[in-house]
Amino acid sequence: MPLIPRSRSRRSKPEAAASERIGDSVAATTCYMCAGRCGINVHLKDGRIRYIEGNRAHPVNRGVLCAKGSAGIMQQYSPARLTKPLLRAGPRGSSEFRPIEWEEALATATAWLGAIRARDPRRLAFFTGRDQSQALTGWWASQFGTPNFAAHGGFCSVNMAAAGLYSLAGSFWEFGEPDWEHARYFLMFGVAEDHDSNPIKIGLNKLRRRGVKIVSVNPVRTGYSAIADEWLGIRPGTDGLFVLALVHELLRRQRVDLEFLVRYSNAPWLVLRNAGGGDDGLFARDEEGRVLAWDRRSNGAVDALLPDIQPQLFSEVTLADGRRAVPALALLVERYLDPQYAPESVAERCGIAAPVIRRIAAELAETAFERELVLDQPWIDWAGRRHATMIGRPVSMHAMRGISAHSNGFHTCRAIHLLQMLLGAVDTPGSWRYKSPYPRPPTPAMKPTGQPHHVVPGQPMPGAPLGLPLGPEDLLLDADNRPQRIDKAFSWEAPLAIHGMLQTVIRNAWKGDPYPIDTLFLYMANMSWNSAMNTAGTIDMLTDRGADGEYKIPRIIYSDAYFSEMVAYADLVLPDTTYLERWDCISLLDRPIGSAEGPADAIRQPVVAPDRDVRPFQDVLLDLGARLKLPAMVTQSGSPRYRDYADYLVRHERRPGIGPLAGWRGANGDAIAVGAPNPQQLQRYVENGCFWQEHLPAEQRYFKHANRAYLEGAAAMGFIDRPRQIVLQLYLETLQKFRLAAEGHGPVQPPDDMRQRIATYFDPLPIWYMPFEEAAIDRAAYPLHAVTQRPMPMYHSWGSQNAWLRQIYNQNRLYVHRDRAAGLGFGDDDWVWVVSHQGRVKCQIRLVSGVNPDTVWTWNAIGKRAGAWRLAADAPEAARGFLLNHAIAEMLPAKQSPACANADPVTGQGAWYDLRVRLERVSASEAAETAPHFATLPPPPGLRPAAAVLRRGGDRS
Ligand code: SF4
């Protein structure tokens, strides 16, 4: 706020002048500067954006706006924006293009894609980056008929999603949240400052104000770890071991919530013991297929889902037919009481002292059981039992990519969920809570589609490409047991790859493994730079030609709003709008903005008109679909069914009455979740600040997995298929089915060279194993762990080209513990080579104390290729910023057999954080700039000149 100038009389009272009028209009929409989906109000003057503020009424951010969100204005006026469709006119990578009209661009794409669809739809690989319209893009792929679709979850945090959905029917972050209002202890693992940025900051603030203890388990002490009461600088990849030691302690001291486990988990379910048999490790079932438990009162096997049984929990039993079985909880106790999980056994490997592990376990137990939280709120459970109060275990947990992006991340995340269940801290007051519309358990209807009989030339597939397999028979394999998808998701290499494996697509397409493709269609995925492992190798694959002189990946179509590094490798570029120039939808069919208090979704509306010849990608996709005559995108007469994406948002019905948006449905707009399309729906959203939210009644806000009123409401709104109890899965039978296949049982079995891998890693109880790269390399030669994280003010590569955000960071350093650096003879600002078994990167170091001494780390996605993003060729991002990706291998070291992607063996999650390195001194003759270096990318035609100075509002000077 400007102050009255000082030149006025000193005696006059200081006055504050009112703020200048910022603009002449304000439009609400949803931020897209990260994945947080906060509500924003955009202030405009003369049609130009002057200021962005947080929407105080919005359920996600309550008016809070971060640096990224504020800097959206500079994203809008970035000189890196593409301005026109482009057709490649030089060799790939040259960035030589011919500007073309949209009609030529769409006709070209239609001709390429139409030929593929008529011959073999699998030859289209359609993958997107941090796409928030996956309900559309996945549906489009299904209509096209290709199983080769996914977004970026395979290299982001699919381990979190898969472990959560299979264990709890929800997950951290997008499908769950801490009970910030009631938690009395908060434990977080591997959480950086990017995902869910504003909600976590708001939540942590609440915890701090209430004096709640915050413990952060993270190799790096930045951001949230820096404000935690206790930072545990764990060694990367050992979180699972640490958690299982906590489990050991809780079991040893008998500090678990047995009543919760009996009522809400499969702890009492009987597991068959029949070593070598085809049913070993499966649940005991009766002739009707009902799972059995052993009732102590009747001393016999009963339906495990009957209410009020008194199950036997710890001993083996013999069933009436002679089969032997043991409760799942007994298996769990037997395993984790083993001394190998004792704090003393794991302390050195984790880098956390045994007394600290024991103390944390004691604090968790003390909070859960001595400080239980009772809400004076009656509720009725699934069996009709009335509860006068809601009793909570106020231990709340949160975890994110730091534990996920390891080759043991799935089991690590399962271990955390196991810990939550043992404490009774799942959707109870004070604990972790489901975000509506979750819980949603895996069901047969959610299987992935793409088995050979699902893929027919010229036809849509009968379902979605991504889904949740329940056993080996759900894998996508051809008749020879080979992967049916180009990324090998849902194959024996990654059976539960529920988000696909974007990081493997380019290599597999280049190799023609498992088959060649014709066209790679990418949307906002910077795959030739920061979204690739082995970046230099990936660039070679994109430009490699076969003996016939043709590119091994014949065609690449790419859509992006900006001149990212990937643009140079496209044959056809479809320029997208910015997020402020289009309609968009954050849908319940995808990943909505719901909270534990109720379901919610949101839209984006165009707040400014594009001043370039660009189109929203979602409009383009629907246009292409109509040109290709994809059945759901044309009318019976063959004309386009939808005018554009806005029209689709209103009129599309995935199932009768269920469309992309849940609010204001029905002809009059008075229905929620289920109802006929409402022509005024978008207008109603705009009038409400571009979001819709429903508040659950108080009696439905906890115990959602077992709360009758909630389950009935969720079924009525189409969130779940029927209102039955959702049982938490301590013991995951789905994994055992894969293991049995590996042992030679059932009609679908892995090839011989994959049997051992499946048998080892498909353990129905969480396990810990050394990350693959660490286990395979010479650890003495590569003694350090190397990890990355994004800085709070940046997200992916698009944030680090932003004129405001670049002023916060435009160079990244490699952070090294000062004791470790001293031992190696390095000082602050020295230049070093970071050497892995894959390659090496030259960069400058900065000494710090807040890092695990065996770990080095850096900010991700700041390093840029010279010339890209309309930055000067000698911009600090190119000359002194660096990408650790160059040193990360996309495949496991050669001694691993068979050759597999550098990924989690259960989910295919890219194991970015398994990297091991050593530091080498840079010789005096080597220039003090980062390496490797690639040729400077010239700007494609139509890019506007970059101004030397950009002012607020994007005005140039
Ligand atoms: S956290 Fe920041 S960048 Fe992310 S959506 Fe919210 S305001 Fe935008």
What this model shows, in words?
The chain is globular, with a radius of gyration of 28 Å. The two termini are 24 Å apart. Helix 6 links the parallel strand 9 and strand 10. Helix content is 24%, strand content 15%. It contains 26 helices and 34 strands. Bound molecules: iron/sulfur cluster. Iron/sulfur cluster is lined by residues 31, 33-34, 36-38, 61, 65-66, 68-69, 197-198.
Outline the fold blueprint.
Elements: E1 25-30, E2 39-45, E3 48-54, H1 67-70, H2 72-76, E4 86-88, E5 97-99, H3 102-119, E6 124-128, H4 134-144, E7 149-150, H5 158-168, E8 176-178, E9 185-189, H6 197-209, E10 213-217, H7 223-226, E11 230-232, H8 239-252, H9 258-264, E12 270-273, E13 292-295, E14 300-303, E15 317-318, E16 324-327, H10 328-336, H11 343-350, H12 354-370, E17 373-375, E18 379-380, E19 386-387, E20 390-392, E21 395-399, H13 401-404, H14 409-422, E22 432-434, H15 505-511, E23 519-523, H16 535-543, E24 555-560, E25 572-575, E26 584-586, E27 600-604, H17 617-627, H18 645-651, H19 681-687, E28 691-693, H20 708-716, H21 733-742, H22 752-761, H23 772-776, E29 784-789, H24 796-799, E30 814-817, H25 818-824, E31 831-835, E32 840-848, E33 855-859, H26 876-879, E34 916-921
Parallel strand pairs: 6-7, 6-23, 9-10, 9-21, 10-11, 23-24, 24-25, 29-33, 30-32
Antiparallel strand pairs: 1-2, 2-3, 4-5, 4-25, 8-22, 12-16, 13-14, 15-16, 17-20, 18-19, 26-27, 27-28, 29-34, 30-33, 31-32, 31-34
The structure holds iron/sulfur cluster.
